[in-house]
Structure formats: structure tokens, C-alpha cells
Design a protein that fits this description.
Elements: E1 17-25, E2 35-40, H1 43-54, E3 58-63, E4 80-91, E5 97-113, E6 120-125, H2 134-154, H3 169-182, H4 187-195, H5 199-250, H6 254-270, H7 274-289, H8 295-309, H9 322-332, H10 337-352, E7 361-365, H11 372-383, E8 387-391, H12 398-402, H13 415-423, E9 429-433, H14 447-455, E10 463-464, E11 471-472, E12 478-483, H15 491-496, E13 497-501, H16 507-525, E14 533-534, H17 537-547, H18 554-573, E15 580-581, H19 584-591, E16 610-617, E17 620-632, E18 637-640, H20 645-660, H21 662-665, H22 671-674, E19 675-680, H23 694-706, E20 714-716, E21 719-720, E22 726-727, H24 732-741, E23 746-750, H25 754-759, H26 761-764, E24 770-774, H27 777-784, H28 795-799, H29 801-812
Helix pairs in contact: 2-5, 3-5, 6-7, 7-8, 9-10, 9-11, 16-18, 20-23, 23-27
The structure holds adenosine-5'-diphosphate and magnesium ion.
């Protein structure tokens, strides 16, 4: 580049002086070569412009040191300003101008005169100095150029050609001015540049400014960039979400989203304990990943719904009020005095020992149809709790209690959690119906072991169900069990239970229950009123006596409904009929021959080898006829008629007793080796407690052997020992009732049962029957046989009892 370096500045004495009006600027400097519009509004300035326009249009423009000053004087202005020329003038409507000025040269005011309403300065152009070293200049110039180029790159609003035509220092100076005009600088920095006279310094200054601008610009870019990228990320996510929604919709998953959200909301509102909550969340997440209609999704859904359907916190308030409880029990059940007392005791204990969690489990034991199930539901009602019955009869698989693993198709939780789901509260009463009918074979896991866990207060806080795979707290549930026989209750369960026995009903009790409960309830259920349909007491009694045979009232209720259906049929056939009264004839027509009519006893019958025992069976008490026959033989004993092992043992015990008493009874010592004995029980009633037939067996054998008839009006029950002691037995109420029904006049019973029987005297209501309590078989024989077995005829033998005793012990040893 060929610079034309100007001559060293001339001395200030040779400088041209200009006398110019001053235009003070607020917040602005005008560099040479830049053209800038200025609004002129202040009086002083207007006068200055007017004056300039009348001369050669030149003004001295300079910045105010303080913007706030409205009427600046010379000292308020910077000395260094710009000599400028007014290019255009537009007069404003409300006075003042809008002018366009172009900077001509940097200038310094030397003095001021403000006589004519405006300031007028004497000023000289300021010269540029320090331009001697051309290399330094070139170096600086290159510097500026590269800076400028990089600045241009980032700020593309800059004109490209500002620096291209620089060929002289003069140009260079102009270029600097133009350049700086394009850079945004604060006023004071611009002023510094304006006053700066040394060219290298000015170039350096420009470099600095450019550098700073670039840095600022870059920082700005970076900030904008990061803001931008944040925005972009948000946008991207939004976009992807939209896309996903579209895909979901296509695949039918948007319902699923809604579903999943609903499930989550439900989990939250249910306040699940941590364990199940986590489990459910895991499953819900799995559900989200699956196509909605897939088989697996429906399995997961089924599972989650199960957990959400279970009660987790909701409970019924125990409303234990003894009077109310008693009222409820009485309102729904006639009789049952003792069981009700026991139940009320239990409820009271529950009330006071709610903290003692280890209250025993009640087990109602008794024959079918005596109200065990319905009592349990009344207990729940009197506690104000929900009630659910779980039938354990025939349960043989642990999975029925604990549920199937989810891998099975159609798997479900076990009976307990199913019940919990239905009651919807955490503290229901759950009835374990017929625990004695539960199978205990452990082919498929022992269900009774699982049941034991349910009932154990230590373990049932965390009852594990295979289907749900979580533990569930059953500790607030109150369990009640029922059973027909205590023998069938699995031993460990038996151990935890408090047994309450319900015995069968007498005719009178059945009658009362029917009158008070069964008939009104069934009439109502059939849409009949008690006025429309009447069943007289005597007909009802025939129905009970001759058409039902049971300990409870099930058969009775069934027969009753059968009759009511027939009555309805009659009403429908004959519209004119208004009331109906059941007669005996009609009853017999509808029900046919009486099935269980008791044959009247023949008091004259000669009963040798035939004795009446009393048995306890499923259907209540029954008369048990035991027949024996003795023929010449080798001492064989045969038993026929469905006799169990226990009965057989009783028979042998009886024989041993008889042998020991042989002389007193007038029997030959060796009868057992010369005779065959056949024992038979004709009617198929299978007694449940075998040993209680002991004394009857013995009586029948003695009667047959001694040909001494048994009193036909006597019946008996009791276990016999080898030495002829009579031991107590069970099922007494049913047995005595059965005896009474058959017209028996005297019942022989073990003395040890006396207390028990005295207690139930009120329920028995057996008027014309004598109860004989005995300790020994000898007494039984005395009471049962028509002639005294130890008669005078055998007195001799009786006297020799000591020897006989000896002989018999020899024989048995
Ligand atoms: N003492 C009673 N008072 C009123 N109704 C009774 C009585 N005992 C039984 N019942 C009724 O007899 C029917 C059978 O009773 P249920 O409870 O099923 O007997 P269980 O469970 O002992 O076999 C039920 O309708 C019940 O209400
Ligand atoms: Mg039942």
C-alpha cells in the first residue's frame, strides 16, 4: 500500500480559525464523515441553526458533559467537537427543526461568545499526529483489518467495503471514523476517540473496540445459543410426545394411557402400604409397555384390579353393646339358651380384651340345621361388622385357601382374599363353615396348615397369597368356625378353638322355631299372609313328627316350603278362594305316606336277646335295637349290620364282663368256648359314638344267654369297661328325646352324665320318662331285665363269688 504520509502538522499559529454557532448535543457525538439527523428544539440551538443557515451552514457540534442540563453554557460542553455542515433542514410545525448534519472535521473550541442568544465559538480543526513510522502503521492497519473481518463475520449488517479502498493515511482516518460510527459505543468512549490525535493510538483504540465488540457478540451468541438449545430441547420433546401419542392412538394405546393414569390415581387415593404399592407400580409400568389388547396385559390388569379392590384401611366400627347384641341374637333365634349365653360372654370378652389379640376362635359344633351358620351371621350383625361365609367342606387343595400362582390360566386368589374383597372392610366376621369336612390329605399341600396360618394371630398379620404375591393383613378379622363333629376338626385347629355345642331340637323346640321363625319367613317369601294361609298346631306337629327326622330344622323348612308352593297353586287355580287352612288329610295327600312314623312300642312283647340302645347320629338321636342270638358252637363272635371297630371292642369288653360274672348269672364257666354269639343291629342307623352301645350289647347278650327278657319300655346308653363299670357318653339330649318320642318309659344313663342332664332339664321337657343313673353293669341288668338277673336260684353261685372271681382271673390271664 502506498501511503501518502502528510507533512508534520503545521503549527497552531498557521491553523484556520472558524467562528461557528454551537449546536450542543445530548448523548451524541458526530464523527467526521457520518451523516446524522438531529432534532433541534431548544431555543438556543434554534437560534444557532438559524444563524448558521444565514451564513455558510456550518456549525460546531459537541456533546454536553451532563445530559440533564437544559441550557448549557460553554463550560458544560466538551471542548472537542466536530465541525459539521447542515445538509438539510425541515421546519417543524411547532417551531424548531429537523436537520441533517454531516461531520466534516474533528475540531477544538478555543473560546466562546454567547451574546446573541446562542453560543458562538472560535474553533480550529484538530490535526492527526504520530504517523511517521510507516511499518508500525501498516502493522496496526492489518490488525484492524483482521479484527474487522472477524467482526464482520458475526455482524453481517456491516458494509463490506469500508476498509477496502483505504490507500492513504487520510483515507485511513476517515475509514476509522466510519468504522466507529458503526460500532455502538457509549458517549464517553466516543468522545475519547474524537479527542484522540495520535493515529497509531487511534488505530489501537479501534482494535480494542472491535475486540470488545467481538467478545460481547460472541458471549451474546453463546447465551442466545444456550437459550435456543433449551428451547429446541423442549420443542423436540414436545414433538416426540406428539408423535408417540399418534403411535399410541394408532395402536389403540391412548385408552391405555387413560387407564394407567386412573390406576395410579386409585393407588394414591387408597394409600396402599409400601409393599403392595411398589408391587402395583411395577405392574402398572409393565402394563404401559404392553399392547392394550394382549393377553398378557389383561392378566396384569386383572392382577392390579384385584389388589385395588381389596380393603386396605376401611373398617367397620365395632358397636359392642351387650343389650343390643342379646336382642339381635334373640330376635333371630329361638331357644339355644346355653349357646347364646356363651356367645354373649365371648362378645363381652371381645369388648374388654380388644387389645388382647389372642382371643380364641369360637367353633359352633352341632348337627346340621340347628342354626350354626345363622348364629354366626347374627354375631357379625350384633358386632356391627360385615359377614362372609367360607365353606371349607370338601376343600382339599391348599390353593383354595392361598390362591393359585398367577402363571395358571384363570388363576384367582384364595377363598380368604376373595372374601375380603367382597366385604370391603378389614375387620369382618368370617365364618369357616364345616371345618371338620375339610380334607387333610396333603397331596396338593395341606389346606389345614394354611388355615392354621390364617387363624394364628402371630402369622395372619402377613398372610401370603400365591396369586397376589404380597402379604395381606388378616389380623383384624374375627373368625368363627362351625363343625358337625369335633372328631373331624384337624387337631391343631381344635387346639385353638373354644367349642360351643349346639344339640338337636326337641319336637317342641322345632314347633316353636317353626311358629316364630320358619313359617312367618317362608310365608312372606311366598307372598302369603298369615291370615291367608293357616297351619293349625296339631297339623304342624304331625308334619314335624311324621315327615321329618332330623336334629335341626332343615328338612322341616324344606317340607314347609313344599306345602306353601302347593297352597299358592291352589290360590291360582281357584280365584274365589280367600283363605286356606291346612288339614291333616290335605297334608297326607300332599306329602304321601308318613315316612318316619314311629311304631308304637309293644309293651307285651317278649324281648329275649333284644335290647334298645340310644344312638346319636347325623339326624339326631335314634333308638338302636340290638339283637343277639346264641347257638352251640366253638366260641365265635360274629357282628353284623355296619358295625364299626369301636362297637366290636365294646362287644368283647361286654363278653369279658359276662365271663367274670358267669356264676352269679347262672352261666357255665366255659360258655365262651361252647357257644357262638351273633350280634346284629337291624336298622341301618349308624351310631357315631360306638362305645355308647356297650351296655346295650351286654344287656342283650345276658338276656339271650339267661333267657331273661328285656323290659320293652327301657332304653339305655353307656360305655362298658372290662370290669363292668359304666362310663359317660355324649349326645344325651338327642338320645333322651329319641327315647321319649318312641314311648320309652325308662332310660338308663351313666351317673357321670347326671350333672349335664340336670342342666338341660328345662330344654328336655320329658314329662313321663324316668331317668336312671347307674355306675355299674350290674345295676344296668337289674334295671333292664324283667326278672332280676342275680336271682335266688343263683344265690349259691353268688355266695361263692370269691372263688368265681378267682377262676375268672385265671381264665383271663
Ligand atoms: N333356633 C333357631 N331359631 C330360628 N331359626 C333357626 C334356629 N335354628 C335354625 N334355624 C333356621 O334353620 C335354618 C338352618 O340353619 P343353619 O344355620 O343353616 O344350620 P347349620 O348351619 O347349623 O346347618 C336357617 O334358616 C336358620 O335360620
Ligand atoms: Mg351351616
Amino acid at each position: 500500500m502506498d501511503y501518502q504520509i502528510p507533512h508534520e502538522a503545521e503549527g497552531s499559529s498557521q491553523k484556520v480559525h472558524y467562528l461557528l454557532p454551537v449546536l450542543p448535543l445530548k448523548n451524541m457525538t458526530i464523527l467526521p464523515k457520518s451523516i446524522i439527523p438531529v432534532i433541534v428544539g431548544r431555543k438556543q440551538s434554534i437560534a444557532a441553526v438559524e444563524s448558521a443557515l444565514q451564513q455558510d451552514r456550518q456549525v460546531f457540534v459537541t456533546a454536553q458533559r451532563d445530559v440533564e442540563v437544559e441550557r448549557p453554557s460553554f463550560k458544560d460542553l466538551y471542548d472537542y467537537g466536530t465541525r459539521a455542515v447542515i445538509l438539510q433542514v425541515v421546519r417543524m410545525p411547532k417551531g424548531g427543526f429537523k436537520i441533517l448534519v454531516e461531520g466534516v472535521s474533528r475540531s477544538q473550541a478555543l473560546s466562546c461568545d454567547s451574546g446573541n442568544g446562542y453560543m458562538q465559538v472560535d474553533c480550529v480543526d484538530s490535526a492527526t499526529t504520530g504517523t511517521t513510522d510507516i511499518n508500525e502503521l501498516e502493522a496496526l492497519w492489518r490488525h484492524v483489518r483482521t479484527r474487522y473481518q472477524s467482526y464482520q463475520k458475526i455482524n453481517n449488517k456491516l458494509p463490506a467495503d469500508i476498509l477496502s479502498e483505504v490507500s492513504s493515511v487520510d483515507n485511513m482516518e476517515h475509514a476509522m471514523d466510519t468504522l466507529l460510527a458503526h460500532i455502538t459505543l457509549p458517549l464517553d468512549e466516543r468522545q475519547v476517540f474524537l479527542e484522540m490525535g495520535n493515529l497509531p493510538e487511534r488505530l489501537l483504540y479501534v482494535c480494542k473496540m472491535l475486540d470488545r465488540e467481538v467478545t460481547i457478540f460472541e458471549t451474546e451468541e453463546r447465551i442466545r445459543g444456550s437459550v435456543q438449545s433449551q428451547l429446541e430441547r423442549n420443542q423436540r420433546e414436545y414433538y416426540l410426545q406428539q408423535q408417540r401419542n399418534a403411535i399410541d392412538k394408532e395402536l389403540g394405546r391412548d385408552d391405555q394411557q387413560a387407564e394407567v393414569q386412573q390406576l395410579r390415581a386409585k393407588v394414591k387415593s387408597l394409600k396402599l402400604p409400601r409393599d403392595p404399592a411398589e408391587k402395583v407400580e411395577r405392574e402398572i409400568r409393565r402394563l404401559e409397555q404392553m399392547p392394550q389388547s394382549s393377553a398378557e396385559a389383561s392378566v396384569v390388569r386383572h392382577y392390579v384390579e384385584w389388589i385395588l379392590a381389596l380393603p386396605w384401611h376401611k373398617s367397620s366400627r365395632d358397636t359392642i353393646n351387650m343389650q343390643a347384641a342379646e336382642k339381635i341374637l334373640n330376635k333371630q333365634h329361638a331357644g339355644l339358651k346355653k349357646p347364646k349365653e356363651r356367645i354373649l360372654e365371648f362378645i363381652a370378652a371381645k369388648k374388654f380384651s380388644n387389645l388382647l389379640k389372642r382371643s380364641p376362635i369360637i367353633c359352633l359344633v352341632g348337627p346340621p340345621g340347628v342354626g350354626k351358620t345363622s348364629l354366626a351371621s347374627s354375631i357379625a350383625e350384633s358386632l356391627g361388622r360385615e359377614f362372609r361365609r367360607i365353606s371349607l367342606g370338601g376343600v382339599r387343595d391348599e390353593a383354595e385357601i392361598r390362591g393359585h400362582r398367577r402363571t395358571y390360566i384363570g388363576a384367582l386368589p384364595g377363598k380368604f382374599l376373595q372374601a375380603m374383597r367382597q366385604v370391603e372392610t378389614v375387620n369382618p366376621v368370617i365364618l369357616l363353615d364345616e371345618v371338620d369336612k375339610m380334607s387333610t390329605d396333603s397331596h396338593n399341600g395341606d389346606p389345614s396348615a394354611a388355615l392354621l396360618e390364617v387363624l394364628d394371630p402371630e402369622q395372619n398379620k402377613a398372610f401370603y397369597d400365591h396369586f397376589l404375591e404380597i402379604s395381606y393383613d388378616l389380623s383384624q378379622v374375627m373368625f368363627i368356625a362351625t363343625a358337625n363333629h369335633i372328631e373331624g376338626i384337624p387337631y391343631p385347629l381344635h387346639d385353638r378353638m373354644e367349642l360351643i355345642f349346639l344339640s338337636g331340637y326337641s319336637e317342641q323346640e322345632k314347633f316353636d322355631i317353626t311358629k316364630k321363625f320358619l313359617l312367618p319367613r317362608n310365608l312372606k317369601e311366598h307372598g302369603l299372609s298369615s291370615k291367608q294361609c293357616k297351619i293349625p298346631s296339631n297339623v304342624l306337629m304331625i308334619l314335624i313328627r311324621e315327615y321329618t327326622k332330623e336334629a335341626g330344622v332343615r328338612q322341616l323348612e324344606r317340607t314347609l316350603t313344599k306345602i306353601l308352593r302347593k297352597v299358592i297353586q291352589l290360590f291360582l287355580e281357584d280365584q274365589s278362594m280367600l283363605t286356606f287352612t291346612l288339614t291333616e288329610e290335605q297334608l297326607r295327600i300332599w306329602l304321601g305316606h308318613s315316612k318316619f312314623k314311629i311304631k308304637p312300642l309293644n309293651a307285651q312283647e317278649e324281648r329275649i336277646g333284644l335290647a334298645s340302645g340310644l344312638a346319636w347320629t347325623e339326624v339326631g338321636g335314634d333308638l338302636l335295637e340290638i339283637e343277639t342270638s346264641i347257638v352251640t358252637g366253638k366260641g365265635n363272635v360274629t357282628l353284623t349290620g355296619q358295625l364299626g371297630e369301636v362297637m366290636q371292642e365294646s362287644a368283647y369288653a361286654a363278653l369279658t364282663y359276662i365271663r367274670s360274672k358267669a356264676p352269679q348269672l347262672g352261666l357255665k364257666q366255659n360258655f365262651n368256648t361252647t357257644k357262638d354269639i351273633h350280634i346284629h343291629i337291624p336298622e341301618g342307623a349308624t351310631p357315631k359314638d360306638g362305645p355308647s352301645a356297650g351296655i346295650t350289647l351286654c344287656t342283650a347278650i345276658v338276656s339271650e344267654m339267661t333267657k331273661n327278657p328285656v323290659n320293652p319300655l327301657v332304653a339305655m346308653t353307656g360305655e362298658i369297661t372290662l370290669r363292668g363299670r359304666v362310663l359317660p357318653v355324649g349326645g344325651l339330649k338327642e338320645k333322651i328325646l329319641a327315647a321319649w318320642q318312641h314311648g320309652i318309659k325308662k332310660v338308663i344313663l351313666p351317673r357321670e352324665n347326671k350333672e349335664e342332664i340336670d342342666e338341660m332339664q328345662s330344654e328336655l321337657n320329658t314329662r313321663d320318662i324316668t331317668l336312671k343313673f347307674v355306675d355299674t353293669m350290674d345295676e344296668v341288668l337289674e334295671e333292664a331285665l324283667l326278672r332280676s338277673p342275680f336271682s335266688a336260684k343263683h344265690a349259691k353261685a353268688k355266695r361263692a363269688a370269691g372263688d368265681d372271681h378267682h377262676a375268672s382271673s385265671n381264665q383271663t390271664s
